[in-house]
Amino acid sequence: MKSLGMKWVIGTLFLTMLLGGTAMGKDVGGIGVIVVDVQGDFTHYKNGSLAVVGTDAAYVKMVDETTKKLKAANYPIYATQDWHPADHASFFTNHQGKKPYDMIKLHGKDQVLWPPHCVQNTAGAEILLDRAIFTAVVQKGTDTKYDSYSGFQDDGGKKTVMDETLKKDGITKLIVYGIATDYCVHATAVDGAAAGYKVIMINSLSRGVAPDTSKKAIEDMEAKGVLVLEDLDMEKVLAF
After folding, report:
1. Where are the domains of the chain?
2. Which residue has the higher pLDDT, 1 or 17?
3. Which fold has domain 2-87+127-239?
């Protein structure tokens, strides 16, 4: 945390000098922030049905405080929100005889069957950060038939409003972090890069389902042009 705080201070000072004392969102090179799926059902903090390792109260507080600092520097903040109907095809409960984490074929692709999570209008689907800090919240996974890890599109290829929203706001570079490194963070970062954005993923502000799949996800992000930083370092973000 001390390292993160010091890098933030250095980056902010660098940013202020670069801009002649200002730090307005569109004046800092079109940088936007995407906070991925920091929702109750994905955290141990809220005893979520699909809680990811390391998502305790301290993690949520760290993400909250860092995101508020970015907001205070006038960076636009966007969120993705898993927002599933109760009969979603990714829930094991909607497949007779199946258990949590069984693998099936769905529309010709491998599909993990998850415990029900982030069901629309339930407490577990709520984002754990103050909604007032977000420029926009992009909901995903709303189609019963398709899972949706990426904030840009679902597994059937249907686009969300993310790309349209970012382009409207003049965003060309993205800082991405949240839950989970090996699923929704990975997919959002990779799709962002594929859509032409410069993408920086912050590892210390993200949590993964498993170490091996998180390592592979980071390697894949880097191979596809995403800059993976261990901590938020604004000087490196600005230079990328």
Report:
1. 2-87+127-239
2. 1
3. Rossmann fold (3.40.50)
